[in-house]
Each structure stands twice: as structure tokens, then as C-alpha cells.
Amino acid sequence: MVNVKHRIRYPPFESSKLNAEKIPIVEHSFTVDGPVIPSFRLGKEDSWIVERIVEGKHAANSEYHGETPQIIEKQRTGWYLLPHPIHAKARKFINIIAVILLVCLFYLFTIPIQESVGIPTFGTGKIRLGMLDYPLLTVIVFPLMVTPIILRVAANIGDLRRQNLFLSSSPLSPEITLQDVKSGSNLRGKIKLEGTSENWLDAKASWRVGILPPARHKVFAALGRYPDGQPPPGLTTPLPHHWEEGLDDGTGMGEDAPMQRNDVPGGVFLRPMRIMSKGGSKVIGLEGGEFDLEPPGGDWPGTLYGGLVRVHWELIINITRKEGGPLLWVYPLVVAHRDSATVNDNIEISDGRTESDNL
Fold first, then answer.
1. What pTM was computed for the model?
2. Do 183 and 267 fall into the same domain?
3. Percent of the chain whose predicted confidence (pLDDT) is above 90
4. Same domain, 157 and 249
5. Which residues constitute the domain of residue 205?
6. Which of 97, 119, 162, 219 has a Cα at 20 to 30 A from 298?
7. Both 267 and 175 in a single domain?
8. First-last CA distance in the chain
9. Would you say 178 and 189 are in contact if contact means Cβ atoms under 8 Å apart?
10. Is the model's pLDDT at 227 over the cut of 70?
11. How many domains does the chain have?
12. Which pairing describes strands 342-344 and 40-43: parallel, antiparallel, or unpaired?
């Protein structure tokens, strides 16, 4: 019998606004009878970390991958879209407007002081709109405040239209032939695309590895908390109709993806992994072809699926289109583990928003 411990402090949604050291590390220990996959550690103890500790002498098993969770089928297999780029631009615009609004409020607050010392002021006059008078500065700033909202609404309407068009005529699944692959080696194979459209311009194959969110109910169980009770630091209260047991940690509900159709399990927008590294890419053309892709940067273990630790590899076919934005085919990969322990201190963290996924 070999003792194994999984430890994870997974970055929640918008982790850049949180102090990683204040979030508890979730641990789960168990025993394995027979060969086990080697130990690995991704990240650092005082930051975000994903770790597997194997204690005692043991035989190595590079082929074990665990039971595939439902998040793979529902959110990371098949055809997907990316949201309209206006979402990301409008979000940045909101930050700028917030700064402008705070500056204006401070300016209005200090106007009496400025007038008392003889400093000229502007924007304090009034302008009549209809039956009411409004401060001139408000009339100038208010349109800037509502502009990002109008942009997001327009982008959501466009996304819903693209989803309807996509679901009404989904392309045929490509034929993919792959050679066996091990962590740290190149991915080689062949892709054949069928049912191409006149709207398609080009196609590119790439692959990447990352850590999927742990199952929320497993996190609560490991921390000794009730699922309906107070969530631990870093997790949010679940929202109705936005979370399913075993799917993810639930921290990105309602924020990680723009407006989606509720009748599509998992949605049609591809979510980025918050811990992720990208491998090589190659243009394959609209008919497909052979590819040889370099491995992702850094050292990574092979495919591993569990309740807390989920190391996921995937192949992505990115089809550039004249209209409607990129079309993505996502294909989960089964990658063998290294023969020795893996340590990777430098892991890349993303905020988890679908609109930020840069393929």
C-alpha cells in the first residue's frame, strides 16, 4: 500500500484581486495498492499550488489517468465559439470610466475650496433638459457611463444570434488520428476536415495543458464543511441554475461567460483554464493535414482526473471565418505521465473569463 496526498489551492475567479496565502490549501489523502503515477508539484507553497505527494517506495505507472469527469464532456469536447471581442474592450472601458467618475466627484467636492482661494472652476453650471436642470459636468460624464452598458448589450445580442446560427447548422466533426504521446514530447497526428464552409478562411491546430477547477462538493468535503453552509475563503455562494455538482468550483457563475442559451448543456463558449500552458501550433489548411506540435512550456504531468486534482490536455482546431468569429473544435487528449517526479514553479494564471481566451 502506498500513501498518496493531493493538495490544491486553485485560483478562483478573478484571483488577481485575492491574496493566495489567505485561502486554505485543500488536502485529500488516500492509499493505492500497486504502481502509482509519480509525484508532481505545480506552483509554490505561498501562492497557487497543485501538488501530488507519493510516500514510500513504489513502482511507477505512467498510464493511469483516472475517471473522466463530466466537465470534459459538457465544457471541453466538440465545437465551441468565442465571445465577441467587444466584451473585453467594454470591460476595460468601464475601468477608465470609473476613474473618470471618481475624479469628477473629487473635483465637485473640492469646488468650494477652489473658489475660496480664487481658482477658476468649470462644469458647475446647469443645463436644462426638458423640465429639469442638470449640472453640466453630469451631462458630459453620464453618456460615458452608459456607453459600456450599451456595448455589452449589443455584444450579447450579437452572441445570441451567432449561437442560434451555429446550433442550427453545426459543422461535421473532424477526423483525428493521433500517435501515443507522453508529457514533454511532441504531439503528432493527422486531421481531416469535412463539410467546410465558404465562410471559412483557414484552420490551425494547437494544443495545451492546464488544471481544471476542483469539484465544489469535493472541496467542501475535504474542508469538513456542509455544501449548503458558509463557503470557505475563495469560493462564492452558488447561484440557482448556474452550477451542477461535480462540474467545477462554482466561482465563475454568471461572470466567466457572456449571455448563453440555457438549453445547451455546458454552453457553447470555450472557457479558459485558470492554470494553463500552451504548446506549439501549425496551420493545417481547410482540408486538414499532418501536424507535429511542440510541447507546452514548463514541466507538466500527464492526464489525471480526480475530485480535486484534474490535469487536462486538449487539442484545439481554430478555424478562422469571414464572419462570426473563430470556430473551435476541442478534443481531449490522453497524455502519459513522466517516469519521474515533476516540479514546475512558474505557472501562468488567467482570470477565467471566456472573452480572455487567447488561442
1. 0.87
2. yes
3. 38
4. no
5. 64-84+171-356
6. 219
7. yes
8. 43
9. yes
10. yes
11. 2
12. parallel
Same domain for 104 and 79 = no
pLDDT digit string, tens, across residues 274-284: 999 999 999 99
| pLDDT band at residue 358 using 50, 70 and 90 as cut-offs | low
Residue 31 lies in a domain: no
> How far is the C-alpha of 342 from the C-alpha of 46, rounded, in Å?
18
pLDDT-above-70 percentage for the chain = 94
Burial of 171 (0-12, 13-18, 19+ CB in 10 A): middle
Burial of 210 (0-12, 13-18, 19+ CB in 10 A): buried
Stronger pLDDT, 136 or 271, i.e. the higher one: 271
| Long-range pairs of 230-233 with CB within 8 A, sequence gap ≥ 24 | 232/23, 232/24, 233/22, 233/23, 233/24
Instruction: Return d(Cα 330, Cα 328) in angstroms, integer.
Output: 6
74 and 99 part of one domain = no
In a shared domain, residues 140 and 180: no
Host H or E run for residue 194: none
Q: Are residues 131 and 242 in the same domain?
A: no
Q: With respect to residue 7, please indicate whether it lies within any of the assigned structural domains.
A: no
Answer whether residue 132 is part of any domain.
yes
CB atoms inside a 10 Å sphere around CB 271? 22
More confident: 78 or 89 = 78
126 and 192 belong to one structural domain: no
For the segment 180-197, the average pLDDT, to the nearest whole number, is 93
